[in-house]
Each structure stands twice: as structure tokens, then as C-alpha cells.
Amino acid sequence: MMADTNQLRMMIYASLLAALTAVGAYIAIPIGPVPIVLQNFFILLTGLLLGSRWGLAAVAVYLLAGACGLPVFAGGSGGIVRFAGPTGGYLLGYLPAVCVVGLIAEKGRNRMVFDIIAMICGSAIIYACGVPWLKMILSLSWGKAFVVGMVPFLIGDALKIAAAVPIAKVLRPIVKKI
Questions:
Q1: Would the pTM of this model clear 0.85, i.e. be above it?
Q2: Residues of the chain scoring pLDDT < 70
Q3: What is the residue extent of each domain of the chain?
Q4: Residue 122: in which H helix or E strand, if any?
Q5: Would you say 53 and 74 are in contact if contact means Cβ atoms under 8 Å apart?
Q6: Is there a contact between 93 and 84 (Cβ–Cβ < 8 Å)?
Q7: Which CATH code, of 1.10.1760.20, 3.60.140.10, 1.10.10.10, 1.10.287.370, is assigned to 2-176?
């Protein structure tokens, strides 16, 4: 009975974080082919709070909802075509990123330094998927792809990581309570 309750609770948290990721997509500042969004903040937070398995489930639900046409991507867009556009690589990068963040956070046993390392690795994975995709889709040089698809976001990502650490510290005992 306790396992069923725990599974249900984790499904609810995964659904909630998928919904928060969608809300983060609505907070978008268009600065070029890749907007500034809060999606990646919630992706990183999802990995910290839910771990690799449930984090992966939450992000998969979010991406599937967007692929089905629900307006959950940047600026309220949706549809499978978004995966073929300039931001498609970033979207697909959310899956391995949340998994790696969750794995590192699980191994780090809630220690702040591991959380920071986890989120830096997660952000790097998102860029490693997004920048080459952006380069290919828009026929950019590597330099231009980095300038357009990564450089403008680094300070904001550092601020998102700085915000996610204390939020995770407060929410973890609630999420992990059995």
C-alpha cells in the first residue's frame, strides 16, 4: 500500500513539474531564433527534485504534450514541427539533461556542490544538443551558432542555477517525504 501511495505522489510531482516547465515556456523573451525562457530552469529543478527516473518521466510528458500540439513550448507554441525548428535540439536535449542532473544529484545525496555540478552538466548537455542543431538548421558557422545559441544565455543560466539550489534545498524534504 505504501509503494502505491509513493508512486502516486511521484506521478503528481512529475505532472506538476511538467506543467511548471510549460509555464516557464510562456515566460519568453525573443532575442533571435532561440528565445530566453525559464523552461531549462524547471528542467534542471526537475532533475534535482525527482531524480533521474521520475525527472525523465516528467520531461517526457512535457515533450509529448508539446509534440501532440499543446501550446507548451516557447511563446505558447506546440506541435511536432517545433522539433525540426531552431529550438528542436534544445528541446530534445532536455531528456538527457534531466537524466544526468538526476543521476548526479542522487549520487551527491543532496549536497549543494553536487547540485551545482549536476546543473552545470545539464546545461552543457542542453547546449551540446541545441547549438549543433541550430547550426545545421540555420546553416550557421560554428562561431555564429555559439554566439546566437549559447553566449547570450550563460549569465541567465548561472542565475537560474543559483536560484534552483536554495529552492531544491527547501522542496526536497517535501518531495522525498515517505
A1: yes
A2: 1-3, 178
A3: 2-176
A4: helix 112-138
A5: no
A6: no
A7: 1.10.1760.20
